[in-house]
Amino acid sequence: MYSDGSAAGVANARQLQGKELSYNNIVDLQAAWDLAQEFDVPVCAIIKHTNPCGVATGQTLAEAYKRAWNATRFRPFGGVIGVNRPVDSVAAEEMHKLFLEVIAAPTFDEAAATKLPPRRICACGSRFGK
Q1: Which of 55, 88, 90, 108 is the most buried (most CB within 10 A)?
Q2: Angle formed at CA 55 by CA 52 and CA 38, multiple of 5 degrees
Q3: What one-character-per-residue DSSP string does 27-55 give?
C-alpha cells in the first residue's frame, strides 16, 4: 500500500482499536473513504465486499449514517463505513447498533471511541478534521 504523501487517507490511517485489518477490510476501507471524501457535506458510505450498500448525506453525521443504513437495512451488517467528518458520540451511538467491521473517519472524539468497542476504528485525517 502506498501513500500520496498527504498524511491523510487509508495508507496513513492510525488504527485506534480492534484486531488487525484483513486485505478485504483494507480494500473496502479505501473504497468507503474515497467515496466519502467526494462530498463537502456530512456523508456516510457503507461498503461490503467492494459493493456500496448505502451512501447518504445529512445535516449531521448521525443523520447521514441513519439515511445510509435505511437505504438497505440488511446488507450493511459486517460492512465498512467511511465518513468525512469526525465521529461524535451521537453518531457513534447510532453506529453501535449494528455490527460493523471497520469505521474510518478523520477523527473520533473521546466519547465516540468508548461507545464503539470492540470495533476496528481508524483515524484517517482529512480536510474536515485531523
Answers
A1: 108
A2: 95
A3: HHHHHHHHHHTT-SS-EEEEEETTEEEEE
Ordered alpha helix ranges (H), the chain: 23-36, 61-71, 89-95, 110-115
For every one of its 130 residues, what pLDDT tens digit does the chain have, with 9 covering 90 and above? 777 777 667 877 888 878 888 888 889 999 999 999 999 999 999 998 888 889 999 999 999 999 998 887 666 778 899 999 999 999 999 988 888 888 889 988 888 878 876 667 777 875 444 3
Query: Is residue 49 within 8 Å of residue 28, measured between CB atoms?
Result: yes
pTM: 0.86
Nearest to 98 by CA among 124, 59, 65, 63: 65
